[in-house]
Specification:
Chain lengths: 413, 225
Amino acid sequence: MASVNYKIAFVHLTFKIKQTMIAMLGVVFGISMYVFMNSFMSGINDLQVTLAFSNTAHIRIYNDIPPDHTNLIQTVVKGNPVIRVHNGRVIKYTEGIKSPAPIIKWLTGQDEVTGIEPQVNSNVFFRNGGNKVNGKLSGIDVENENKFFKIADFMVSGRWNDLKFQPEGIIMGSILAKSLSINIGNNVNLLTNDGVSKNYKLIGTFQTGETAIDNSKAYVNINSSRQLLGKNQDYVTDIQVNIKNYRQTWPIIGRLAPVIPYKVESWETANEGMLSASKLRDIIAMAVSLTILMVAGFGIFNIMNMTINEKVREIAILKAIGFSGGDVTVIFLFQALVIGFIGGILGLLFGYVVCLLIGLIPFKIEAENHLPFAYHFADFYMAFCFGLLITLFAGYLPARKAARIDPVTIIRG
Amino acid sequence: MENNIVLTASHISKYFQQPDPFQVLKDISFEVHTGEFLCLTGKSGSGKSTLLYVLSTMDTDYRGELSLKGEKLTGRSINQLAAFRNEHIGFVFQFHYLLPEFSVLDNIMLPALKLKKKSRPEIEDKAYQHLQLLGMEDQALKPASRLSGGQQQRVAIARALINDPSIIMGDEPTGNLDSKNTSIVFDIFKQLSADNGQTIITVTHDEDFARRSDRVIELNDGQLL
Ligand SMILES: Nc1ncnc2c1ncn2[C@@H]1O[C@H](COP(=O)(O)OP(=O)(O)O)[C@@H](O)[C@H]1O
Ligand SMILES: [Mg+2]
């Protein structure tokens, strides 16, 4: 048997259906705004992560610049002696990863690891006659690299797989090729830091949409880059690793980093700037949508207050015939709850539809043709909870006021 | 039955602080027997309504002591008093005070639905019986706001009766009614006290009404005469 309080609340809600609808509309609007803002921000954030993964793997292992050796003596000599070192020099610094085989073997044995890509990267000068451009040369395993970064999808001329069989072939970013004024089939000269120079033939160009890459990066076979640098068959500078869940890089890093003398870096560390921008966006989305929800809450507060002012007599009668203050609170709080609940569900639906519609508008950013939206359960869940919380709060104050109405003063007239 | 006391008021005093401090009720003491039909009369402004609200437990801001059905109610919490009213006291106000959004039937059933001592069908049955008694069974499903004043007052009486309260209180329940409706209400009250042993305490200005009741007490300037 439903309690009589709910019956009364129901009668109140349905008797002035227009007022109820207006209060509900506020919630619907607030919550759909929340869903829209957050889904939009999530869409942008997710797009950025995807873009980040178009040239970084989840984990990168490389030989970092040597640690700070400017004050070596102090690490050995205790106390506070006066020490002066002039023009200290690092006498030996090995480049690249000396023995990648055991590391790769260890990585292969890990459950989480889904892909391993050894690379030989170096800074080179690209030259074509008088044109000279500084850039990055990546020596890669053609098939494996494509599995990681899907470069074949970004090719604007030539074919990615052709690189496999052309040790003298090179694939460049489209802007880089343009600034060197070279076309497919033309030769380009590469000059290393050590002064070695060698000719390659352009067999393809790619365009990722990220200018910093398109204007500086080029790919060759891993073996021909070893050759160019004069290194042995084992030599790698980076080992890129992909894992099952890219948000869970730390367990692997925690196990690997202490036992090898190389830097083991998560994509999150490498993209700190991007991630803090994501966080800022999330905060803005949250602030804006909470403000809107708050305004909606204020609307409910007003309407509830109005309802209660209209109903003082009835509240007094209810109390006279034996309803307690608690009953009266329940009656009005339940109305707020129903408004919040139904308004919340409609708001989620409406917000989703708005996202879908706005997602249809053509808009070109990076590799996307439409505004990006991502639908996360957490966003919808939070929208609903916040909505309910705010309606409850907005309903609670008027309900308390109703509960405190003194029947005698009202009935006395 | 004569010695069965249902209400004891002893040394009830009440002050209003606003607009000027003054004493509305001055040391009022009296008793009411079970099944008595008691009328409270007095000039306008003599404190009848004020006294009735104290007796009804709605007003707790007074001095002295009030007992109903042998229970001392002075000092109890507001919620305890609400529960007591719900079960033991029926109210009829001067201005009918029905809930306009509810049907006649719902209005009558509300106190019983709140009390939760009976099932819904039982309560509905009972509400219909009362409506029948008051000659209003054909109005049961109408919204309360559509009734005439006399009809509304009868519905208010039916509502007051739904929980079989020991005491029924009225503040000028016939004040707005014509003589025909007044005599209907009087007959119902008379019947309730005589046949059911329910106690009636009602404020009235109607001298004829008061004369035909069991006992009349008169207030003058906040004192019992
Ligand atoms: N809330 C109040 N504040 C101050 N004075 C009041 C209030 N209610 C009633 N009074 C005064 O108390 C006196 C008694 O009022 P009331 O009990 O309503 O008289 P009655 O019902 O006999 O006409 C009157 O003088 C009235 O003006
Ligand atoms: Mg009065």
